[in-house]
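Module 6 notes. Inverse folding takes a fixed backbone as the condition and produces residue identities as the prediction. Think of it as a translation problem where the source language is geometry and the target language is the twenty amino acids. Below is one complete input and output pair. Work through it position by position during the lab.
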């Protein structure tokens, strides 16, 4: 399993929690480990975009955030 597949799987799992079990996600959000989910949710979209661009273009694309 590469990083692209793992990131997609975790994002899919988190989206299922948001849709079907928001009360459970609220309980996780109030815990001390909520920073892990928050930091992943903030960094994953750019990471997934870079990985998809690399796969489709055939070379590594570096995107700098502002």
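Target side of the pair, the amino acids:
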């Amino acid at each position: 399993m590469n990083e692209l597949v793992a990131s997609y799987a975790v994002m899919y799992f988190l989206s299922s929690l948001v849709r079907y079990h928001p009360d459970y996600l609220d309980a996780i959000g109030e815990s001390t480990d909520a920073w892990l989910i928050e930091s992943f949710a903030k960094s994953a979209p750019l990471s997934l975009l870079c990985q998809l661009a690399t796969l489709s273009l055939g070379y590594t694309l570096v995107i700098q955030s502002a």
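Reference fact for the lab report: Residues 34-57 form the longest helix (24 residues).
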